[in-house]
């Protein structure tokens, strides 16, 4: 456990930060399937929050509440409130496209578009009507630099994105999201399909991104959760069992269930 | 949704509704004109009369000669295509090495790409003269050559549909069979054939439907003389070749002679419509089974 | 032991029969094409390609026929591709999954199975007579567009379906609308597959004779069509016309015509196969 203590930069000024994301009494149903039960949770600005729990516990569904990607599931039903910057994002007049510009998402498997590296990063601007080459070039370069990919791809921006390695592809997906300047990043097991070296790079990147973004990250990897996150939420069977500072959860969980999960006795 | 996006979706919706409109119009036109036709000709005569001579002065409107001609050619073609098509399917899916398969499949597709008028030419100028050496009294225009060549034409259709059906059988069945010491042949015909049977039946139905509607091969090679016969070496006329015959001639549109093509067309359409729906039904059933 | 040998014999026997069956078609094509080339190749010369039709086999050319076929090819592409691809996009990306869609689905398989000669009857009543297009190129192209519509739709849907869901998710999560996702991501990613299907469909349209005969395209057209409203003929009709003449000289003409028709068909199919190959290679997710 000593490695955890050294690598966590626990934020003692936590309470001073602004509330960014909020779920208030959130229930989610897929038909008769009650997948999230009365979730109440507050996430503060510029923090990393890890969502952990066994498969099917609802953590991914919870993550996708914040960019409304669950909307594509026909039987999806939500009650309760989900707020970003105190604004209910499920209200009728919310523009989902603009919401998603503000809330970027990185998926489990790298999913670059089958286009060039440049076009991948430029896509977010293109669909918002920006097509001036010089403007795009500047934004693409910045985004790639922020995703720590620039040096590796600057000479081959026109090459297909699918020619990159898995880790590079995932950083490209992050760059693609950063290019539209969101404030929230949702990450759904972003490193689970990558090798250890690529994973380390992604984690390093996430740590830097924290300065500017509020990050929610789903992970199966307890080590990863303890390495990178400020707070950790443990989900089990659709319920939020425990939500505390990461250090507390890993060293001194309050619930027996949490401890059993973290120590690998189930899951 | 933005307004221009709504317009695009409207356009897409219109495109898709054309498919429904097409079916509706086909049925509407065939039925409307056939109704007009049956005001002059009794439907009993149409179904029972043994002669079809609407273009002669002594007019008879019995569809049976055209129907037997159509069915005769179809039957011959299926007899040719079915054993060969199924054998190809099993060979490609169970025997052939992947590399060979990847070469053979596109080659077979060439057969499907050849225009039917070319097949008709083949039947008339190559197959019939060749067969005449073996079959004395073979008519220059005959159902046999037409059916034979039509069979060659539908081989790729049967083989590719059957192959899909065979490949859809889960590998676990194959492994179970091989682990019991079965040969590839035994696995193919005792395990895979029954398991893929509905898919294979679908392929046969679709092939029959295709053969019923085939026009140019029969127009060229089977002749244009409605004969009530089941002798494959005789000249026959099919529904489709009759429609072509009328279209090529100078029958005035709107006349009763001309209306015959709608009644004939409706008869053909009923057959193919029934078969196509049947195949769809069976396919739905067996898809459910595997899901 | 006896049984074992029997099994072996059946196994090998069927393998041989399978190989025989598979190559039967290939061999027949080869025989057939070589016999046609022998019969007709010498006939193909400048006069044949640029000659107008004639009652005399010697003078008869296929200028009007092949230009008519090219017209039909182009017009069917212009009419058939947008409608077919549009319908496929609607079916695949927009149509709600309900019983109405199931009916559309059944309807589509039905359309694909309607005999081509019936499409001719539809074209005759709808385009030639109701829309007063006459037996023009436009009427022919409209008829053939309807004929190839199911093929285009099925191929396009397959290509759209081959684009992985993760691409759609990525695009939506970037805040793209549905149409932006289709236009910027799904269509480019499936373009190869769509093009393959479309070209195969067009090759079918070029080879069709029956529906164009039924709508009244003529065998004898003494001029090259200059506008979509002109009368026309196509290669398959010209070939059919020659095949049905008793004079053996016309059989030579028919062979030559077939060589030209097959060249067009095989060229289109070759392009389609090449595009599919390239697309499959490129699209490895």
What is the compact description of this entry?
The complex is a heterotrimer of chains A (267), B (291) and C (285). Chain A is α/β, with parallel strands linked by helices.
Q: Explain this structure to me?
A:
The complex is a heterotrimer of chains A (267), B (291) and C (285). Chain A is α/β, with parallel strands linked by helices and 267 residues long. Chain A has helices at 2-7, 59-65, 96-102, 117-126, 133-146, 150-153, 166-178, 196-209, 222-228, 246-251, 256-262; strands at residues 19-30, 33-44, 48-52, 76-84, 87-88, 103-106, 184-188, 214-218, 231-236, 239-245. Chain A has a single domain, classed as Rossmann fold (3-Layer(aba) Sandwich). Chain A has eleven helices and ten strands. In chain A, the strands form two sheets. Chain A has a six-stranded mixed sheet with strand order 6-7-8-3-9-10, with helices on both faces. Chain A has a four-stranded antiparallel sheet with strand order 2-1-4-5, covered by helices on one side. In chain A, strand 7, helix 8 and strand 8 form a beta-alpha-beta unit. Helix content of chain A is 36%, strand content 25%. With 291 residues, chain B is an all-alpha fold. Chain B is globular and about 70 Å long. Chain C is mostly helical and 285 residues long. Chain C has two domains: 2-43; 46-282, MetI-like fold (Orthogonal Bundle), CATH 1.10.3720. The longest helix of chain C is centred in the N-terminal third of the chain and has 39 residues, at 2-40. Chain C is globular and about 70 Å long. Chain C starts with a helix and ends with a helix. Chains in contact: A-C, B-C. Chains B and C meet through helix 1, helix 3, helix 4, helix 5 and helix 6 of B and helix 1, helix 3, helix 4, helix 5 and helix 6 of C.
